[in-house]
Amino acid sequence: MPLRLLPLMHPFNHVPPAHTKLLLCIANELTEDDANKLRMRCGASDVNLPPRAMANKSAQELLMLMDQRRIFRPGKYDRLAEILADIQRMDLVSRYFGAAEDTPGALSSTGAIDTISDQEISDMLLQQFANNLGSEWKSFLRGDLGVLDRDITLIQQSMPHSPVREHIFQALKLWRDTNRSTATVTKLVEKCENNIDIEYEAYQFLLEPSEKT
Fold first, then answer.
1. Distances (CA, A) of 191 to 39, 70, 161
2. Which terminal CB of the chain, N or C, has fewer other CB atoms within 10 Å?
3. Which pLDDT tens digit goes with each residue over 146-203?
């Protein structure tokens, strides 16, 4: 029998609704036997949930724990698909993540989750992202996006009375315009996810299909 659903909580604000919907749909199809297998799988070194944290937890609560510990993230479901396959629920992998050759993280038939856009990132999205960045912006632009320090300095010197967010925006535009073939929403999200200083809230809007249209 499917487990009774509980309200799905998340440690971050403004989680994409499609992410919550996906986890709820999967949890609703997991059985008590699946929960037992999931507990065993989550004790493995690559997930490594503490036994005490998993004790007496339902399948949905285990999904919540993995979500909170960022074992998987909105729009990045490779690990979740792998875990479901390991507990012999390939039917869920096929249903929610498509066939093996499809892009992980995209719902093939329900349309609840779209793949992250591979189109060039727009000024509007860059401006919103610039507004969300904090004091880590220079190190992110230099180390992750490859913007030269001298170019950042030139932008600041040419706009001495502009707010910092405008400096960030112009530096992001420079990155995009210098890397036309690779400066996509997908690439920016990947760079954010690989930088521990960038908070999820800074780029979560990029994972919302409605925001990219």
1. 31, 16, 29
2. N
3. 999 999 999 999 999 999 999 999 999 999 999 988 898 888 988 888 887 888 788 8
Note whether 186 and 125 are within 8 A (CB). no
Q: Contact, 60 vs 5, CB < 8 A?
A: yes
DSSP string spanning 23-36?
HHHHHHT--HHHHH
Residue 7's CB: how many other CB atoms inside 10 A?
A: 8
- Two tokens at 101? 């050759």
Whole-number Å distance between alpha carbons of 9 and 106: 22
Picking from 197, 188, 193, the residue whose alpha carbon sits closest to that of residue 78 is: 193
| Gap between the terminal Cα atoms of the chain | 39
100: tokens are 């093996």
CB 205 within 8 A of CB 211: yes
CA dihedral 43, 47, 48, 52 (to 10 degrees): -60
Q: In a 10 Å sphere around its CB, with 0-12 CB exposed, 13-18 middle and 19+ buried, how is residue 189 labelled?
A: buried
CA dist 126 and 19 (Å) reads 23
